[in-house]
Amino acid sequence: MSDTVEIPLHRLVHARAGDKGNRLNLAVICHDPAFYPALAAQLTAERVAAIFASRRPTKVVRYDLPKLHAFNFVLDDVLEGGVNASLGLDGHGKGLSFLLLGAALTVDRALAARAIPEQ
After folding, report:
1. Cα torsion angle, 115, 11, 109, 39, sign
2. Domain limits, the chain
3. Which CATH number fits domain 4-79+94-112: 3.30.300, 2.60.300, 3.30.1360, 3.40.50?
């Protein structure tokens, strides 16, 4: 048996999305501080850019907030021009945190036991 398991991100963190024009801000906050190192290693700006590839971000920056056990990701040009220009139903990008929360991370089995149970 492997010492690691794949676990959906939503079992490890919660997220909040917001907009500034055509820029999406995604805050990712660990449910348990013990999850922070695994997220820091695996949830890179490049990984987030790949998750949002269909939205064609021109730039993704990760800001680490270790004392809060959190990250802030800023994705440029993913909101179809922003709330005033977009014809999409979610011009503010509020629902886009769910795209990120569906990603999976590989964590130690013991750490996964501390995650929020699957509903």
Report:
1. negative
2. 4-79+94-112
3. 3.30.1360
Per-residue CA distances from 103 to 7, 53, 81, 91, 97 (Å) = 8, 13, 25, 22, 11
Residue 49 and residue 77 in contact, taking contact as beta carbons nearer than 8 Å: no
What residue type is 119 in one-letter code? Q
CA 105 vs CA 5, 39, 77: distances in Å: 8, 8, 26
Tens digits of residue pLDDT in 70-103? 999 999 988 754 444 443 444 444 567 788 999 9
Average pLDDT for the chain = 85
* Structural contact between residues 95 and 22, judged by C-beta atoms closer than 8 angstroms: no
Q: How many CB atoms lie within 10 A of CB 115?
A: 21
DSSP state of 4: E
Instruction: Give CA–CA dist 75/58, Å, rounded.
Output: 7
The pLDDT of residue 80 is 58
